[in-house]
Amino acid sequence: xxxxxxxxxxxxxxxxxxxxxxxxxxxxxxxxxxxxxxxxxxxxxxxxxxxxxxxxxxxxxxxxxxxxxxxxxxxxxxxxxxxxxxxxxxxxxxxxxxxxxxxxxxxxxxxxxxxxxxxxxxxxxxxxxxxxxxxxxxxxxxxxxxxxxxxxxxxxxxxxxxxxxxxxxxxxxxxxxxxxxxxxxxxxxxxxxxxxxxxxxxxxxxxxxxxxxxxxxxxxxxxxxxxxxxxxxxxxxxxxxxxxxxxxxxxxxxxxxxxxxxxxxxxxxxxxxxxxxxxxxxxxxxxxxxxxxxxxxxxxxxxxxxxxxxxxxxxxxxxxxxxxxxxxxxxxxxxxxxxxxxxxxxxxxxxxxxxxxxxxxxxxxxxxxxxxxxxxxxxxxxxxxxxxxxxxxxxxxxxxxxxxxxxxxxxxxxxxxxxxxxxxxxxxxxxxxxxxxxxxxxxxxxxxxxxxxxxxxxxxxxxxxxxxxxxxxxxxxxxxxxxxxxxxxxxxxxxxxxxxxxxxxxxxxxxxxxxxxxxxxxxxxxxxxxxxxxxxxxxxxxxxxxxxxxxxxxxxxxxxxxxxxxxxxxxxxxxxxxxxxxxxxxxxxxxxxxxxxxxxxxxxxxxxxxxxxxxxxxxxxxxxxxxxxxxxxxxxxxxxxxxxxxxxxxxxxxxxxxxxxxxxxxxxxxxxxxxxxxxxxxxxxxxxxxxxxxxxxxxxxxxxxxxxxxxxxxxxxxxxxxxxxxxxxxxxxxxxxxxxxxxxxxxxxxxxxxxxxxxxxxxxxxxxxxxxxxxxxxxxxxxxxxxxxxxxxxxxxxxxxxxxxxxxxxxxxxxxxxxxxxxxxxxxxxxxxxxxxxxxxxxxxxxxxxxxxxxxxxxxxxxxxxxxxxxxxxxxxxxxxxxxxxxxxxxxxxxxxxxxxxxxxxxxxxxxxxxxxxxxxxxxxxxxxxxxxxxx
Length: 936
Fold this sequence. Notes:
The protein has 936 residues and is mainly beta. Helices cover 12% and strands 43% of the residues. The strands form 18 sheets. A 7-stranded antiparallel β-sheet has the order 39-36-35-48-47-44-45, with no helix packed on it. Strands 2, 3, 6, 7 and 8 form a 5-stranded antiparallel β-sheet that branches.
């Protein structure tokens, strides 16, 4: 230092110690007012002289040990003449200090000047300095002992040249750390079920205390019904389990304080019980159908229901509520996020209070197409490749698990697009190398992402020029990272890739999406970070960076980044983005509907796209909800089911934002004329002059049939093309794949007896408002002379077979019946003989009884088998009436029920030998089924 100026040494130690100084390894005398030692270890020497020169060191001493520092030399530079005048200058001003209550603080102020300046202190807030416990040490250092909270503030050290207005100021902040104290404590409350409780807790302290809430000693997390904000605890939809003690704890680095309050939940005696059997069913990617049953007790007093739902995963999830009337027990909750789990519960309300919470149910919304695609980063490693990399989409944008990416590219001068589909395995796919490209060529690259629902709209084209082919070694592309700093700034960071090239610098360029490149910024080679400022909020920017050397420009790294919106100036378009309106749906055919809508006026001149959601109106068909991405205002949805009511909704996408779904419109597809004939046509003779014809609807789902046309004719009339016509009304409520329909054809024998006709033919077709369907194949009914002679013995056709396009009655040969009966009797006698041989004399009578029982069972089984065979031939018949049908004319005792004709006892006896033969076959089949069951 210069002779006559000031010198300063600082010694810092860890722990509590007393600091002293030594000069040339001897204790430094403090008898002069020129020398000041501060409690924080600072040594100040004013008006230094030649004898102050030497080696200085500090000595730290406490009860445990004594430590000396290294020596520091003070050299005095002699003055060449009188000291010149110098304005005041503060060498060491006050530092920002944090101190606890009742601690001592040192505010240093060391100034020099010629003449020596005067040092004074003041507060920045113009408040007077509390002189109690405050003193000045040395030439202007302020010492405050046992600081209190009111000592906090900014202190100003002012060095002034005497007799002038020349001065210098240095500020320093003193923060007194104060333990927290509660200025507002939570109060105990009494609330009814389903009410709301609010607890308030305000605390003071330095630093600002952190408020934590506890329930019966357990920390409370903000979630669902419990919310914490502005140091308040709010509990909505109170339930009996909320009756507890609640603690508010205020805590900072200086300590903590706790206050306790009580919440008492009042229950009504005649309150309703909770809603029962809560069931949730997914309808679409944004809607879930909730259904329940009314409370078991006091259900007649319920005036409303409240539905509560929130996301199932994560903390701090907000709970939403929907209130509906008591006239329904189902509700569709919409505006949900796709591919998310939601938890639901329901509360019933009455004038005296609310019920308990119902059981909670969790349901998952369906996936949706991704809202947008990842931002692409393009880098070339050689003149013939481009490395495309991206970051996985967050769940809010992917709206489900991304199953594949589609990468499309082309040259700037070629319209032919090459696409590569990249399936995503269990781990995310984040890069792909395009190879075999042309050097020094501009390529346009874009990407689209897919979930199980479908593909998103492709991203905008990103351009990248492949490097030139050169024998010289140029620097590789740097590893580039972009991070939005705020709504108008982006931080660019990079790391040079390993290379032998000597870098001379970097070239950085950026431009908004859709605009030409700006001028290059050239940066020095030692820079690895740069801030781009002056950007526009909510705009996509392209940033390109390359390194260059003496051999030329290196390979380029190309990334994109979106600037966020400014909090101080929120984007009003986000809140004002409306849904499409004037939506019209028109049915074009039985499988297509045309949809059109209006475009918002504010979106003119901007690129917009739309999502169309459609599906059957019935909640049971929720899995068939589909989505279409389109940029036009009209679309024709195809592949629909005939005569089905569909629901349509449209959503607008613009500037990476999406509007809510529009109001739904409904349209039913047109009817479809039958394209196939009725199925399973059967004809059975049930009386001498009456036949029963049965059939199933055509094999077309969702087909509406208004009537059936039955054509029947004798053999001669059939050959002449002359048919009798009978119409039967359709059954619109019947499932197309289950029920049989039947009709009686009466008076057949009177019609054809005079002609001696033995064959009878039937054809059936289905019709509706759109037209007539084709006729079925011709079914033949054979009428024998035995049929005419046995008028009092009604017959039933046992079996039909399809031969040469016709169904024929299967007449079983008598020889087969006799052989079958003989085999059955032989088996029975053989079993009796074995049983008699093995039985003892004691059981002879029992054996005889068993033989009789076996015979009865065999005969009973044969009769049952015959009836069963009749039911199989007739399949499932839809009766004209649900009760048994009996011919009132007295010609027969035949009965028909929902399973078809039932044989009388006389018929059963006439056919018992045939039935016994059939029973043997039936028993054989049952044995196979039994063995199969055991295998499982």
